[in-house]
Design goal:
heterotrimer; A alpha+beta (365); B mainly alpha (287); C mainly alpha (277); A: 365 residues; Rossmann fold; 21 strands; 35% strand; C: mainly alpha; MetI-like fold; 2 domains
Chain lengths: 365, 287, 277
């Protein structure tokens, strides 16, 4: 059981810098998810922790011990790979036992641990099979089982669910959460899927271009994105982002001018705003409402998506601005219809010209 | 490790090139004197000497080039037909593939001998068959006759290496996605058109690789020629010429010069190919 | 429409039949001829009418043909073993370890396999003389290695590269060192590839002619292809065709069996070597 600590970790392949100075503290027993667009360096960061890549500079600490120079096997980690990476020529039992065997454990000890792990993952009856005789979901369980029997200080997951179909993905996701609750082992999990990140993580580390954009609890990132990037990445459908200028500020209450000439007044704004400043207004589709009729903030409906339990309506605001509005149940608007968008001032996020979030006076929704 | 590998292959080659500039003889290969380019071309006593002045060398170059062009062309066409057949799904395909492979696995010397016997002027089955079919009136001395000897060599080579060609082309064919053909079928394109407009352009890289491999192989042809017609000048290839100078005439210097020339010809083809491949790779980006 | 399709089917099977006859007839004819002795040979026969094994007896009596076969087997076995051990090590470094100029090196190796044999003949001749290996089987093994190594390295490297990198990493995380990695993870997975490569090397060594012809002198040291090529009768015009065919059949039979059993493997090896080139 141990925490993980990264100090100013950098990594470059040749000329290209992939990780540009990452500082991170992961507490003992925490489930941390690295998430970000492809090429953001999340997998590389995980491989640096595993010791599969060497850091260019900085330090990696596991359980308070500096393991920067240590080989993977000396780090007390276990890893689950995206392609499962099961040894095709070994049975499930041999796959799970291989690491223990190499570490010189006694046979009885190996058997006991493999059987315990197999039971935990309900793969007991598969032990004598070869990987090619297993389904994708079973293979994934074996890969997790192989990691569990090593009883590591830290679990590393590299996009473990991306090769599974949608139904199995949800099922295995639940399984992983259950296992973590049971073992309480520190886990680091890499994914590009924000649903996995939101559901599994104690804390999410959102990476972009080799830097940490924000670290925080899932709802923190959802409600208080630190910048435009986080705001755009977390949440589906994506947050609506509109360019705006501060028209006036009256008694600390700013009024914003939006594309198409609309103005909205906010209840209370961040103190640092000045009249005439350009900002970006962000509001999540699920915080918007629609009323039929013309005039005011709104426009024609361009597309309606029905999802059953909810619906998305796309409203053309100005020439190049499309607003997404999400509502429960079936949509009441039809394509071509003009609608008014209800924009609750309390749900609005503001970002300055550099993309940094402006602290709001009132918390949203 | 890799260095040893290169040394093992590189050292004999380097020595061969060195010998080509000396007057070494087979019996006393250790003692030799440097003679410059004399083995290649020298003017001596009002006469041009050396490999490049030898009519027989130029004859062998011409023979080899002719052999390469003719046999590789035939093999490409036949190989393509066999590959297309093998690309179909039909019962017994595995067995058929094995049958096609057999000529390739038989030692060249032995296939040359088999054909030698089949092409025998008096008792050969080929003459017998052709006469029964009424295609020829009198038996032909295939391997002895200057006009047909080279065709006999080509025949043996075609028989032996068409399978190899077919397999390489087949590998190319099997990399083509099925939905391409399904799309063509949906569009109602005639199969012959599909072959020339879709299949052929797409397997061109694989085809080129196969043709180049085979050409390089054909340029160094030795076994068939040696067994079928030994050292007759009508069929002599560059390799046979070099070995004859080297072993039969004991002239290591001259033989090495010829061998070096063979090497240069093939190296040139390789370099040109690699450069062309590189250029194409460069256009297509990484890989 | 239907008769056209049926016609197409018939045409297809005719084509298959034609190719089969073309591929098999020389071998078939050699077998028939080998069982016909004496003056029988001087009439052309298309069907196996006679069954006279005297040619086979003659082949083994008149010359050290059994010895030649043993030579061929010994040389081929040694060549296969040596090339596999050497090329596995080389393939590991070429396929798994990244270093500058790796592609260039690979292409150089491929080019070496395209060398004309005759170009290394005199250099190799000297080398074999210096080592005192002239007219000996080890000399032939050395010469054959030049032929087999480039392509065995190439083929094994191609196979090695196809193994997923994650597997190697999983083993490293499991605590495997390089030795365990090669022997417990890679070798079992490479098994089929090793068999394939070994087969190809065997066929090359078994068929090799130019080196064997040049570097051996006495009948007892010759390999089978040389022995068959140099078989002659009382005069140059009276070749003992019956014996030659019998010998050919004896030598070809193991190869035919190998091909029939391992055709799938051989095909994958041949194409692996070429497609990526």
């Amino acid at each position: 059981m141990a925490g993980v600590r990264l100090c100013q970790v950098r990594k470059h392949f040749g000329r290209t810098e992939v990780i540009r100075g990452v500082d991170l503290d992961i507490a003992d027993g925490e489930f941390v998810v690295f998430v970000g667009p492809s090429g953001c360096g999340k997998s590389t960061l995980l491989r640096l922790i595993a010791g599969l890549e060497e850091v260019s500079s900085g330090a990696v600490l596991i359980a308070g011990k500096d393991v920067t120079e240590a080989p993977p096997k000396a780090r007390g980690i276990a890893m689950v790979f995206q392609s499962y990476a099961l040894y095709p020529h070994m049975t499930v039992y041999q796959n799970m036992a291989f690491g223990l065997e190499l570490s010189g454990a006694r046979n009885a000890e190996i058997r006991a641990r493999v059987e315990r792990g197999a039971e935990m993952l309900r793969i007991g009856e598969l032990l004598e099979r070869k990987p090619r005789e297993l389904s994708g979901g079973q293979r994934q369980r074996v890969a997790i089982g192989r990691a569990i029997v090593r009883e590591p200080k830290v679990f590393l997951f590299d996009e473990p669910l991306s090769n599974l179909d949608a139904a199995l993905r949800v099922q295995t996701r639940v399984e992983i959460a259950r296992l973590h609750a049971k073992t309480g082992t520190t886990a680091i999990y890499v994914t590009h899927d924000q649903v996995e990140a939101m559901t599994l993580a104690d804390r999410i580390v959102l990476l972009n271009e080799g830097r940490i954009e924000q670290v925080g609890a899932p709802l923190d990132l959802y409600h208080r994105p630190a910048n435009l990037f986080v705001a755009g990445f977390i949440g589906s459908p994506r947050m609506n982002l509109l360019p705006a200028t501060v028209a006036t500020i009256e008694a600390g209450r700013p009024s914003l001018r939006l594309p198409g000439g609309y103005e909205i007044a906010l209840p209370a704004g961040p103190g640092e705003l000045e009249a005439g400043a350009s900002v970006t207004l962000g509001v999540r589709p699920e915080h918007l409402g629609l009323t039929q009729g013309t005039g005011g903030f709104g426009g024609p409906v361009e597309l309606v998506e029905e999802l059953g339990e909810s619906h998305n309506v796309y409203v053309r605001l100005a020439r190049d601005h499309l607003m997404t509005v999400r509502g429960e149940g079936a949509a009441s608007s039809r394509v071509g219809e003009r609608v008014r968008i209800d924009l609750p001032p309390g749900a609005v996020h503001l970002f300055d010209a550099a993309g940094k979030a402006l602290r709001r006076a009132a918390p949203a929704g | 490790m890799l260095l040893t590998l290169l040394l093992v292959a590189g050292w004999p080659l380097a020595r061969t090139i060195w010998f080509s500039f000396t007057d070494a003889r087979l019996g006393r290969i250790g003692e030799n004197a440097f003679v410059g380019f004399d083995n290649y071309l020298a003017y001596f006593d009002g006469q041009w000497l050396g490999v490049l002045a030898d009519g027989l060398w130029w004859q062998s170059v011409w023979n080899t080039v002719w052999f390469t062009l003719v046999s590789v062309s035939i093999e490409t066409v036949l190989g393509m037909i066999i590959a297309l057949a093998l690309n179909q799904v039909f019962p017994g395909r595995g067995l058929f593939r094995a049958i096609v492979l057999i000529p390739w696995a038989i030692p060249t010397v032995i296939s040359a001998r088999m054909w030698n016997w089949m092409l025998h002027d008096q008792f050969g089955v080929v003459n017998d068959l052709l006469m029964k079919l009424g295609l020829i009136a009198a038996p032909i001395a295939w391997t002895a006759n200057a006009d047909t000897a080279m065709w006999a060599v080509v025949m043996v080579d075609v028989w032996k290496t068409t399978p190899f060609m077919a397999l390489l082309i087949l590998a190319g064919l099997q990399m083509l996605p099925d939905d391409l053909y399904e799309a063509a079928r949906v569009d109602g394109v005639h199969p012959v058109r599909v072959f020339f407009r879709i299949t052929l352009p797409l397997i061109r890289p694989a085809l080129m690789v196969a043709i180049i491999f085979r050409s390089l192989d054909a340029l160094r042809v030795f076994d068939q020629v040696y067994v079928l017609t030994s050292a007759a000048s009508d069929t002599m290839s560059m390799s046979v010429y070099a070995r004859q100078e080297l072993v039969e005439f004991q002239d290591v210097g001259l033989g090495s010069a010829a061998a070096t020339l063979v090497f240069l010809v093939i190296a040139l083809v390789i370099v040109v190919t690699l450069v062309a491949a590189r250029l194409r790779l460069g256009e297509a980006g990484e890989r | 429409m239907r008769w056209r399709r049926r016609l197409g089917r018939i045409g297809f099977w005719l084509l298959i039949a034609a190719i089969t006859v073309f591929a098999l007839f020389p071998f078939y004819y050699a077998v028939i001829s080998s069982f016909r002795a004496g003056s029988d040979l001087f009439t052309v026969a298309y069907w196996p009418e006679a069954f006279d094994p005297s040619n086979y007896a003659a082949v083994f009596q008149r010359q050290p043909f059994g010895r030649n076969i043993a030579n061929s087997i010994a040389v081929a076995a040694a060549v296969v073993t040596l090339s596999l051990v050497l090329s596995l090590t080389a393939a590991y470094s070429l396929g798994r370890v990244r270093f500058r100029g790796r592609t260039t090196l690979l292409f150089t190796i491929l080019s070496v396999s395209m060398f004309p044999q005759v170009a290394v003949l005199s250099g190799l001749f000297e080398l074999i003389r210096v080592f005192g290996l002239y007219n000996s089987l080890p000399g032939l093994v050395l010469a054959n290695l030049i032929l087999t190594l480039p392509f065995t390295v190439w083929v094994l490297t191609t196979f090695m590269r196809e193994l997923p990198k994650e597997l190697e990493e999983a083993a490293i995380v499991d605590g495997a060192g390089p030795w365990t990695l090669v022997w417990r993870v890679f070798l079992p997975l490479m098994g089929p590839a090793v068999v394939t490569t070994g087969l190809l090397a065997f066929i090359v060594a078994w068929n090799e002619f130019l080196f064997a012809l040049t570097f051996t002198l006495s009948d007892e040291k010759r390999t089978v292809p040389v022995a068959i090529a140099l078989m002659s009768g009382a005069s140059a015009y009276e070749l003992p065709w019956g014996n030659i065919m019998a010998a050919s059949v004896v030598v070809t039979l193991p190869v035919v069996v190998l091909v029939l059993v391992f055709q799938r493997r051989i095909v994958s090896g041949l194409t692996a070597g070429a497609v990526k080139g």
